[in-house]
Amino acid sequence: MSSPTEPAPPAQAPAGGPPEAAGPVVVLTQRTIWVIFSALIAGMFLSSLDQMIVSTAMPTIVGELHGVEHQAWLATSYLLAMSIVMPLYGKFGDVWGRRWLFLVAIGVFTLASAGAAMSTSFGELVFFRGLQGVGGGGLAILAMAIIADIVPAKDRGKYMGPMGGIFGLAAVAGPLLGGWFTEGPGWRWCFWINVPIGIIAFVVAYKALRLPSHHATKRVDWLGTVTMALATTGIIVVASWPSLSNSTGYDWGSAGLLSTLVATIVLAVVFVLVELRADDPILPLRLFKNSTFTLTTAIGFVIGAGMFAGIQFLPTYLQIVKGEGVTASGLLLIPMMVGMMGAAIVSGALIAKRGKYRVYPIVGLAIAAADLAWLTTLAVDTSLFVFGAMIFVFGLGIGLVMQNIILAVQNSVDPHEIGVATSANSYFREIGATLGIAVIGTIFTSRLTERLTDVFSQAGGAPGGGGADSLTPDVVKQLPEPIHSGVLNAYVDALAPTFWYLVPIGVLALVMAFFLPQLKLSEHAGMVARGEAVAAPKAGGEAELVEGAVPAAPEAVAVGAVTEGSRTEQHAPGGASAPPRQAD
Description:
mainly alpha; three-stranded mixed beta sheet
């Protein structure tokens, strides 16, 4: 199915004119691209690893720090911080250049990791997890934007596939390391490990990222930045209210809840009004006139809410219900990594070869939605083979979607707005994921606490004077019958039904994917289109910077695209039109 495209952003630089490049023009030889790519992979792996490394260690961490009722905040704080800073990194990267921002992101992430490792309370750990998210958000967004800067969309699938595979690798390497550290030197090494990796990534990025800097021509949209951050925080606080208030549900008579809700709505409205009037908005609302951007953003939000939430609690199922060690539970997630990496790499290669990207999100979402329904059948006696098949299929579906919708949105916008479009798309995906984790986490922990309380009440209290908020996998294993069986059933009864809430969300994303337009992939990298780089000949030599290098001829440099009907027209710097780019 193909749909007509709506007008995209005009074929000129954003408000204020294009930022002026400061410094030499880069010659994009193949060696230059691979060296830069290595730096991006190092940064992305650092960010992705930390999203998953806590998963297998979480039951032990929350048990030791007495935070079972608030365990969702270990993931929520990280994703909330990422959501807030993503648009900032994207916009500021477009305005000032991405090199120094990428280095700042690595530095913040590394320092926050050291703080998390030294935390002495659950509140401290949640704070430093949020600070890690501030750095991790920059690593994720800037890496994807830089790839769009140096690689044409028609070839980008070969690079986006491995970048998607990094998420799959981290999805398994993270839990494995988390399990090994928890059983060995201690869970704090889940954070200490980031320090040497961060230092190495910083050195590699400092040497490899030879990108131009810019001078801003408009004032920074600080009011939009503040209102967006406050509104985003309010959304998550409302979504997580039962956990924060230690209640089993929403008390709509609570003055705190109602005032937070009203303040969040007001801040969201103010943010929209500010963005409509800002000279150079953090989140240009005109992007939503582009049908590809709007659809991919909506799909990203929906799959964030529907897909990522359930993954967070699978290691808990393996450790508590199946009695697996933390390291073993990490190993048992390998099928998901295999499916995700395989799907991302193969689909990326096929897109680079055939120039078609639309079919992969459709197939991937159909697979993932069906798998969510399958996950509702999880039980105490579910075999590990069946569990492995479930998560393999899930990884297969996600691997076909995530990087390919980013490719689609980058291909549809003006090259001067690659960063802000990428970050805006990812922002809404992370908001969806944060909301999903907060809501599903609240549902899961509320149901779990209620069921565990019943189990211990019927048994006359937990052995050793502990309670539901102090359970760890080791403690559960030592519980006598019938308390042991009661605890296992409580976890399954709390977890499996939550996947039913996610199935309709997956189906909604699938329906939207059918309306995603198929545009011809651009033949020019973002930096070439903006006149910041020149593409080396096919047999290009060593990577180099050439002072005063002149960009390619106008007919070979597309700096913008205007879509109308089924046709896309590319414009050269002087206003000349390049050959039209047809929607297929």
